[in-house]
């Protein structure tokens, strides 16, 4: 601005100096062409006036621009301060919300352990227990002796027969397979309710898992959802199995990721071994054009191999063997000439590293893995550790402890209710998970045989709470209190807890059916128990209620 004022003053002074009246007439001589000079002076004056107007306009524009910039700076500064204040309040609100959520979860997870005294158990039962006549100790003891023990007496004999035949069948399977090209089958292991001694409903079905491994020089490289790989939330509990060469890392050699140049070779891999034909990987039961093991291909191979093995040894036995269920490829049935039959499941699995956690291709007679995302996604089963945990805890419990009796009674009641109102999303595995949590939370003396009634109420209360919150956590995954004697892999203990009820959160129809079945089971409990207790009067029984369809 000072420069502009200086220029205006200079123009004014120049105009005054050049004005003709500035010099007196007597001191100079008037030129002859006076009119021409006057015309030029007018033109000069006009140009100076225009220049002055232009400079004034320029100065005004500069002042306006300066004011606009100053105003914009003030607005930006105010917006920054406002945003900083807003970000601070947002961050503070999020912190408060997270603290409340963490407190709520901790309270909910720890609240069920505080069960109070036995005399107050009925007083703290939930809304579902209002109006329910719970059987007394005498009725429960009589029911268990006459209904449960009577049906489970021949389980040991059946297990022995099935295991002996399965071993013979797998030995024949190894003989019909090509040792250089086919999968190598190991010895089978018994898991589930038949081997944990709590199955009560007929027909009895033995569950056997058969680990297998690829032929040399290949090996399985397993990846789980909690190993750092990207798995969506609905695939928690799953993993993938990659077929690799024994001298190859699961992530691949660096020569596959770096251009070595035309005159350089990898010392570990040649050009011949760096790429494997698609047909070779399909022979190894991989998904098309990938190195990932395909569960569907494995089950097809296993069915064909079992059929060949049975054809080799069938002349030794006086019964027939067949696949009993189309949707369960490993479901087998032994049919005797007398008309009797024995069912069992033979399911191929893959061992996770050097642990007793296994990748399982499918779950027989279960909806735990009904919605498998892909045939290359394998569900992890912890059945071996579950069996070991029950055996380990049983050693510390009083003689004739009631923990298995509680699970048997609850499983029986649930099965009877499902036969009346149809199946629901609630399974025996959910009931066993409830027992595992209570076994860890309750002291050993609480499982004495005379406390059967109180512990059965605890299981029902815990299950009601889980149904209300839609949260039943897997016992092993995310549980840092697993006994060290089990040798359980630490990676699963440090993982996020796995909610077994998560699939029912978005499927409200199945969840509603599950809750209704539970409530109907509570209302029918006394009637169902008294029905199988012949010498106890049918007191407080108004008949079995059936859910309307």
TrEMBL record:
Which keywords describe this protein according to UniProt?
A: Cell membrane, Coiled coil, Glycoprotein, Membrane, Nucleus, Signal, Transmembrane, Transmembrane helix
Q: Which residues belong to the signal peptide in this entry?
A: 1-20
Protein's membrane topology: Single-pass type I membrane protein
Instruction: Read off the InterPro entries from this record.
Output: ITPRIP-like, Mab-21_HhH/H2TH-like, MAB21L/cGLR
GO molecular-function terms, A-Z:
protein kinase inhibitor activity
- Please name one Pfam family that this protein belongs to: Mab-21_C
Keyword Disulfide bond assigned to the entry: answer is no
- Localisation per UniProt entry: Cell membrane; Nucleus outer membrane
| Coiled-coil residues | 38-72
Source domain of life is Eukaryota
Domain Mab-21-like HhH/H2TH-like span(s) in chain numbering: 404-477
Gene Ontology terms: cellular component: nuclear outer membrane; plasma membrane
Q: What function does this protein fulfil?
A: Enhances Ca(2+)-mediated inhibition of inositol 1,4,5-triphosphate receptor (ITPR) Ca(2+) release.
Q: What's the family?
A: Belongs to the ITPRIP family.
Q: Would you tell me the protein name for this molecule? A: Inositol 1,4,5-trisphosphate receptor-interacting protein
